[in-house]
Amino acid sequence: MSFAGVALALFTAAAVVAVPPPAAHAFAEDVCYPEEGAPAQNCGPLPPVCPLDDPDAPLCGLQAFALYGYTLQRPLGGRSLVHTDSTYIIARTVGFSERDAYWIAAYDEATDLGSFAPRDADGRLVPDAAALTTRDIDGLVRTHFATGGFLFHFLPTMRGPSDPQPDGLRPDAEDPAHEVMLTHLRRWAMAGPSSAVPLCTGGFTAPSAAGDYATGATCYGDGQPAQIHGEYAVEAPLAIPFDNETGQQVISGDVRSGQFDSWIGENSWNARTGIYLHALGDRISHRACTDAATITPPSPERPEFRIDLNVPTCDQGPHAIRHEYETGVDFAGVEPGDRTTEATLSMVYDELVDFARARGTLDERATLPATKAELVTNGLVPALQVRGPVERLTAVTEVGCRAGAGQFPGTPTCGF
């Protein structure tokens, strides 16, 4: 059977038994915990026979997709060393306190999982795990189509099908006319607690004075919601349809974004920052898909937002393979357009400098190109290429120790 035939069979079977659609995983957990007391494992390692420069290899795509499906079933889950440890180390380096850096990183990971509590390399919860567990933000989870959570992970641009594609390796997070969700989230995160800046499903606000749909004062519709209709490729043209309504974003259960700060509590600004950084990382991670995808705004003839993610570069096989290029492989063998880990760490660093400056905590040494190069290019990037999961975790921790950032909870103590 061809890969298309296998994908169709998998999708049909899923529909019959009413299981969730294929997972939208960007910078997916790379360190997984099989059971308490057992060493961590690679969640979805690239099969050794699969090339680093061919994400369209059909059998590798099917194998990669199956591996990640297995990962989702592991009861203790795992974590992404990009979303958690690397974010923590960068935040510490640019001037955030240990506490703030931890909660930024924890909510970065919770955006994928709903909630996050740290475990050590043997899968055991850290001793003070209860105090280090995030509040539930299940409405933002990558597989939750009905809440609009999916759109925190797949962020297409608003443009016509014949307009030039953006550069998703360095997306413009201050371009509300095109990077709607990304600029919407950045503005909300930067505004901080108790601001009037809304957080809206899909990032869609009422039109601003400049005419964009990302930076208006209220969510689109304001009591009379409009439909958001999208399609997400299984293997184009086979797609999953999804539908939402404009309005306040679902955070958890009946909690909406207008209640975000009271729901999260004292760590709400850190949580906002972590959620934005997660979406930024996923925008870059999924750039092969979302650069080609489009958003069409409402019109008198069709009063709904339309999101077209039904394009070949969103197909689940290449999608899965590209995530397995992100850790535990030699990045030099990956095509430049797929080197998303390096691109993400660079932009996360720059954004955390801006956020630290806005919050009055910036360490001015972090603005030096040499400081960034030493931490990112010469530190985190080589460490994340280590194939063994425990060895990779140790290598990333060592980078933080050398930078004076300390260790993320559950990792070895500096000086080990």
From TrEMBL:
Q: What keyword terms does UniProt attach to this protein? A: Signal
Q: Which region is the signal sequence? A: 1-18
What's this protein's name?
A: Uncharacterized protein
Which species expresses this protein natively?
A: Rhodococcus kronopolitis
